[in-house]
From TrEMBL:
<dbReference type="GO" id="GO:0005886">
    <property type="term" value="C:plasma membrane"/>
</dbReference>
<feature type="domain" description="PAC">
    <location>
        <begin position="396"/>
        <end position="447"/>
    </location>
</feature>
<keyword id="KW-0808">Transferase</keyword>
<dbReference type="Pfam" id="PF05227">
    <property type="entry name" value="CHASE3"/>
</dbReference>
<keyword id="KW-0902">Two-component regulatory system</keyword>
<dbReference type="InterPro" id="IPR005467">
    <property type="entry name" value="His_kinase_dom"/>
</dbReference>
<dbReference type="InterPro" id="IPR035965">
    <property type="entry name" value="PAS-like_dom_sf"/>
</dbReference>
<keyword id="KW-0812">Transmembrane</keyword>
<dbReference type="Pfam" id="PF02518">
    <property type="entry name" value="HATPase_c"/>
</dbReference>
<dbReference type="Pfam" id="PF00512">
    <property type="entry name" value="HisKA"/>
</dbReference>
<feature type="domain" description="Histidine kinase">
    <location>
        <begin position="451"/>
        <end position="669"/>
    </location>
</feature>
<dbReference type="InterPro" id="IPR013656">
    <property type="entry name" value="PAS_4"/>
</dbReference>
<dbReference type="InterPro" id="IPR007891">
    <property type="entry name" value="CHASE3"/>
</dbReference>
<dbReference type="InterPro" id="IPR003594">
    <property type="entry name" value="HATPase_dom"/>
</dbReference>
<feature type="modified residue" description="4-aspartylphosphate">
    <location>
        <position position="858"/>
    </location>
</feature>
<dbReference type="GO" id="GO:0000155">
    <property type="term" value="F:phosphorelay sensor kinase activity"/>
</dbReference>
<feature type="domain" description="Response regulatory">
    <location>
        <begin position="809"/>
        <end position="925"/>
    </location>
</feature>
Length: 941
């Protein structure tokens, strides 16, 4: 509780008065102490004087008695007699003085000593008279007078010492009392002085405050008067008798109050006598609108304030019109529009947004989404508001899924931006475009691309394979006139393959679904390899390729996609170079990037075409397309690939001087490549997102004599493969960061890992009482994309059948009978029994009838996904190897079919074995894996 100034002043005065009383009491107390001390000192001095007087009288008595004994002169008896009388008087005074003290025993001893001494003196005088001088002197020497006198001297000296000590103690007590009194007086005086000073300051402050209050009151009165003059409202005083006086007039006020207004004021007051505050609207004869407020006073009068609100009323009408216009605009928009505040309340929304809840906008506005039925389904739309309200300038989401109140899923493209009002309040404006139809179209397009790629690649594989058999003389001697025709057909089949691949790559680049497998690699060997691979093509055009010597550079790159970039640039330069000319390739290292330049010395790019060089299907001169070949997609794909690698591409050209294309890639620091396992056992890389299952499998393999390295993602697996010697790989197809088949496809496309033993594992989550590692294993020997070189099919199959004593059983699962016939022709000379199946059902029937040593598997079958057969292969005993032979492009989201396949792969291999048995199955696979060249080290047998 805070005390007022008056209370503080009263408390201070009371404290000062109390201090004065305390000082007076202390002075009186000190005076009493001094008086008592003075009396005690006087008494002690008196005792000392009496003790000294008595001793002196005793000496006189002794001297008189001795003088008389020695001289027999009666004159010596005068001091003896007077001394005895004086001794009696002094003894009496001393007894009275010491009566208040406990000295009775001491006085008794003193009386005995005095009596003894007086008795000896009297006896000495009597002996002198009776015996004479000599005999009296002899007896006096033996009478003990000296001892008695010494005893009295000691007793009186003791009394004097005690009294002097008493004097000293009293003096010390007096000094202490005086010192404390002086301190209390000084301290009390100081406090009183401070209180007086505080009183003086407080009084001055109160006077100043009163002066300021008086000034403020005068200023307030002046301001109030000015305010009344400046306020645009009319102020009236309505008296109890009905009179109305004007207190102040606004800028547009009339000189006299309007009669209608006066009547309205008095009538309203009379109708509502119990209300202390009345508010109503009133309009005058000219149609102007006024807001009237009446406040009652205690004396029965009332104060009325009349405000002209004509402009405000018109503004509100305009605002309502604008709101209605805004409502019509936003409701007419099919996009979802809504505004939320910092508390999550929807301040504004259109019909498209409220339709998510089957409500009208007015039923949604003012509420939080979580308070509306079905609000949980739109939670993705509401994320990110906190960051926007703090610092984020904008939030975009290309695709997100919400569920309306009816349970329908809708895909939206979202844009959010913060909005700051004039009062500083920050809101979030959101516009969401419904892209469900677009997504469906993209899905249909993706399905169409995948289907077309399959339907084109499958027959093209048969055509190309048949032509390769003919061109390779595998079908016998070809008549010489037919050779040019077959060569033309084979060459054009190659063109068709490139066209299909370019179209698919362009589609994946456009949709952002092309997966890059980046590694830090030296750039010069990759450029040299690209030049070597296209050298044959350059010879067809009589063009020489020159790679200038120079420095090397490390870049983070996808080697396959860089090879595609170089193939496009080199083939483009070769096609546009005159016969006999040269194409120069230069690798230069700049400050922060490496630059690869491909320069030709042809006609250059026409001025009109230079702006469209990187567009799709762009051709500078379509008249010679058949002569030079090409689809017009190469440079468009090249630019997209370079940009995905974080680089840039450009060109410099001059008419009749040639064109120089350059690719700039950022430099990278090469990571140190160290082997994660140091022993010399066969090393198995376990790729599994389930770290618990991977750890259990590693322990089982270690117990079986293998060293293990664990990678929990496809990205980590690539890093391990780049820096560690691995002899085999186990792969859980249900990876967290990438489709397992996509990872396998990319792995098999790299020559360094084409023959690495790969086992696809099915791993289920751990349950109570079971191991985390359960399932089976499928040995995936190779991935053969369509179309392919026929020799690679034969090579893969021969490797799988190498070392067998009898004919092997091979099952080819393919829905195209022509392709099955082609593969049968290719393998006709091999020691095997080839069985065919055109569907999943036929394949299952074949697998049920007999055990197969190898299955060549297409992933796209008319009655389902071919990957479903991997479960049956995992269950076979002894293990069945598999070669995937499919036109399906896998990858992260490569198509809708790939998404469906991923669902299949997650339930692909059901529980067939316990953890310990699975390790035995894997070891059996590795011991019997086909003998192939292993760039990373041979697998021990």
């Amino acid at each position: 509780m805070r005390l007022s100034g008056t209370t503080l002043h009263n408390l201070g005065f009371a404290a000062a008065l109390g201090l004065l009383v305390l000082l007076a009491w202390q002075g009186k107390r000190s005076q009493e102490v001094l008086l008592d001390a003075n009396a005690a000192v006087t008494e002690s001095l008196e005792v000392i004087n009496l003790a000294q007087g008595m001793f002196s009288v005793l000496q006189d008595i002794e001297s008189g008695s001795r003088g008389y004994v020695l001289t027999a002169d009666a004159a010596y008896l005068a001091p003896y007699d007077s001394g005895r009388a004086e001794l009696v008087r002094l003894r009496g005074e001393l007894g009275r003085t010491l009566a208040r003290r406990d000295r009775a025993a001491w006085l008794a001893a003193l009386d005995a000593g005095i009596a003894r001494r007086v008795e000896i003196a009297s006896a000495n005088i009597e002996r002198r008279d009776r015996l004479g001088l000599q005999r009296a002197a002899d007896v006096m020497a033996q009478a003990g007078g000296k001892e008695a006198m010494d005893a009295l001297r000691a007793q009186l000296a003791e009394l004097e010492t005690d009294e002097r000590a008493r004097l000293a103690a009293e003096s010390a007590r007096v000094d202490s009392v005086l010192e404390r009194g002086r301190f209390e007086v000084v301290a009390g005086s100081g406090v009183i002085a401070l209180l007086m000073l505080w009183f003086l300051l407080a009084m001055n402050r109160a006077l100043h405050r009163q002066a300021r209050l008086a000034d403020a009151a005068r200023a307030g009165e002046a301001r109030q008067s000015a305010l009344l003059r400046a306020v645009p409202d009319d102020l009236y005083e309505v008296h109890a008798d009905g009179r109305v006086d004007v207190l102040s007039r606004g800028a547009a006020a009339r000189s006299d109050p309007d009669a209608g207004l006066c009547a309205a004021l008095t009538q309203r007051i009379a109708r509502q006598p119990d209300h202390t505050l009345l508010t109503f609207d009133w309009s005058d004869a000219q149609g102007r609108d006024f807001e009237v407020r009446i406040a009652r006073a205690d004396d029965g009068d009332s104060l009325a304030m009349v405000r002209d609100v004509s402009e405000a009323v018109q503004a509100r009408r305009r605002l309502r019109d604008q709101q209605a216009f805004l409502r019509s605009v936003v409701d007419a928009d099919e996009n979802l529009i809504f505004v939320r505040d910092a508390g999550g309340r929807v301040l504004l929304c259109n019909e498209a947004f409220s339709a998510l809840f089957d409500l009208r906008p007015g039923q949604v506005e003012g509420q939080r989404a979580e308070d509306i039925a079905g609000g949980d389904g739109i939670a993705p739309l509401l994320e990110g508001d906190t960051a926007l309200l703090r610092e984020l300038p904008e939030l975009r989401r290309n695709q997100l899924a919400v569920t309306d109140v009816r349970g329908r899923e809708r895909w939206l493209q979202l844009l959010k931006r913060p909005l700051t009002l004039s009062d500083g309040q920050r809101l979030v404006l959101a516009v969401a475009v419904d892209v469900s139809a677009r997504r469906q179209v993209e899905r249909m397009k993706s399905e169409f691309i995948s289907t077309v790629s399959h339907e084109l690649r499958t027959p093209l594989t048969a055509i190309r394979g048949g032509l390769s058999i003919l061109t390779g003389d595998h079908a016998g001697e070809i008549p010489e006139p037919l050779r040019p025709l077959i060569a033309i057909a084979y060459k054009n089949s190659e063109r068709l393959v490139r066209l299909i691949n370019d179209i698919l790559d362009a589609e994946k680049l456009e949709s952002g679904r092309l997966v890059m497998h980046l590694q830090v690699m030296a750039l010069r060997p990759l450029v040299a390899q690209a030049i070597e691979q296209i050298a044959g093509y350059a010879r067809e055009f009589d063009v020489r390729l020159a790679f200038a010597p120079g420095d090397d550079a490390d870049v983070e790159i996808d080697s396959d996609r860089f090879a595609q970039i170089m193939a496009n640039l080199l083939s483009n330069a070769i096609k546009h170079s005159p016969p006999g000319e040269r194409v120069d390739v230069v690798l230069a290292v700049r400050e922060a990037h490496a630059e690869v330049t491909v320069a030709d010395y042809g006609a250059g790019i026409p001025q009109a075409f230079r702006s469209r060089v990187f567009e799709r299907f762009a051709q500078a001169d379509s008249s010679d397309v058949r002569t030079r070949g090409g689809t017009g997609l190469g440079l468009a794909i090249t630019r997209s690939l370079v940009e995905q690698l974080g680089g840039e591409i450009g060109f410099l050209t001059e008419t009749d001087q040639g064109t120089r294309f350059f690719v700039r890639l950022p430099l990278a620091t090469r990571r140190a490549t160290t082997t994660t396992v140091s022993d010399e056992r066969a090393r198995v890389l376990i790729v599994d997102s389930d770290t618990t299952a991977a750890a259990q499998l590693a322990a089982l393999l270690d117990a079986d004599g293998y060293a293990s390295v664990v990678a929990d993602s496809a990205a980590q697996a690539r890093r391990v493969l780049a820096g560690t010697t691995v002899h085999a790989l186990t792969l859980n197809l249900a990876l967290a960061d990438e489709d397992g088949l996509g990872f396998l496809h990319a792995l098999r496309s790299q020559p360094a890992h084409r023959h690495l033993p790969v086992l696809a594992l099915g791993v289920e989550p751990a349950s109570t009482g079971r191991d985390a590692v359960i399932g089976g294993a499928v040995g995936l020997v190779d991935w053969l994309p369509k179309p392919l070189e026929t020799g690679r099919v034969v090579e893969a199959v021969r490797a799988c059948l190498h070392g067998r004593t009898g004919p092997a059983r091979v099952l080819h699962v393919e829905d195209d009978p022509d392709l099955r016939t082609l593969v049968g022709t290719l393998l006709a000379g091999e020691p095997l029994q080839l069985h065919g199946a055109g569907s999943l059902a036929e394949a299952r029937g074949e697998l049920a009838q007999r055990h197969h040593d190898l299955v060549i598997l297409d992933l796209m079958l008319p009655d389902g996904d071919g990957s479903e057969l991997l479960a049956e292969l995992a269950a076979a005993s002894p293990p069945t190897l598999a070669i995937i032979f499919s036109a399906l492009d896998t990858g992260s989201g490569s198509s809708a079919i790939a998404h469906d396949s991923n669902v299949v792969l997650r339930r692909l291999v059901k529980s067939r074995h316990s953890g310990a048995t699975l390790a035995t199955v894997i070891a059996d696979y590795l011991r019997n894996w086909p003998t192939r060249p292993f760039p990373q080290g041979d697998l021990p047998r």
